[in-house]
Amino acid sequence: MIPPIASKFVAGESPASALEHAAAQNRDGVKVILNLLGEHYDDPANAAADTKAYRSLVRDIAASDLDACISVKPSQIGLHIGDGEFRSNYRSIVEVADEEGVFVWCDMEDADTTDITLDTFEELAHEFEGGIGQCVQSNLKRTNDDLERLADVPGKIRLVKGAYDESPDISYKQKSKVNEVYRADLETLFDSYEGEIAVGSHDPEMIEYAEELSSEYDRPFEVQMLMGVREDAQRDLAAEGREVWQYAPYGDKWLSYFYRRIRERKENVLFAARAVLGI
Ligand code: FAD
User: Fold this and answer.
1) Which amino acids bring their CB within 6 angstroms of ligand 1?
2) Which 3-state string (H, E, C) describes 10-27?
């Protein structure tokens, strides 16, 4: 059972609790992206088990009235075992999602995986005529070129700043530089991406800039934020008519995810300390 302190960031351990969480968010106008926690599998049995779990989750979402979709991690569905394993597991999830009308996102992991992840997105998005979306990271120096290459790929692109600590040869390290590049990547998306745009950021300045571009280009976009982060803003944006999706992880591997959320921000450390001390 997940302790109350972690349940701010994690939607329970079971698919049923994740779906319950999605229903509660939907009542506030916020749509939900469900992610089964798990990554870096070297054993094909683990990748197969999570692939099966996602296929089942897709059917559960389709059988409900929920505004929900899923997001998978490449290393969770076989990338560390081999490109072929990843491709075939991903395809088997997208096949059922396509039949059931449920959208599938793919997270972006460390920079060694960018090529195969983007190649697979391109291949499956053309084959299934959209229905899938790919995350890209502005901290990577290559991303603006990638966006130009992906311009005519159907589906959606989620732009994030990037969570992985990459080498300075291939990535921007300074926060201000990443912000500058994030804005430039947003411009590229609004200017030339033919699919739909998702702003995966809690940063009010990035969301405001996307609003400006949205008016200038007369194109919509969606905002995506993590469960437990700026949830008031998620509800407020949704109430103002913006499409908002909350990324909500669930599953029994919640501990390391919870630590990551706690470590990344001083306020979260204080929140955790207060919860433990009961003050
Ligand atoms: P930051 O630069 O961290 O913060 C900017 C400003 O945002 C802050 O000054 C503050 O005003 C506000 N803010 C940020 N966090 C908080 C908080 N906890 N509470 C209150 N205000 C806050 N990364 C990947 O590498 N691959 C992925 O696949 C991926 N998927 C993601 C999916 C979603 C939906 C989201 C939201 C993020 C994802 N990320 C992913 C993580 C992302 O790369 C960033 O590490 C993370 O979002 C932090 O960057 P930021 O844009 O939110 O703003």
Assistant:
1) 107-108, 135, 137, 160-164, 200-204, 224-226, 229-230, 247, 265
2) CCCCCHHHHHHHHHHHHH
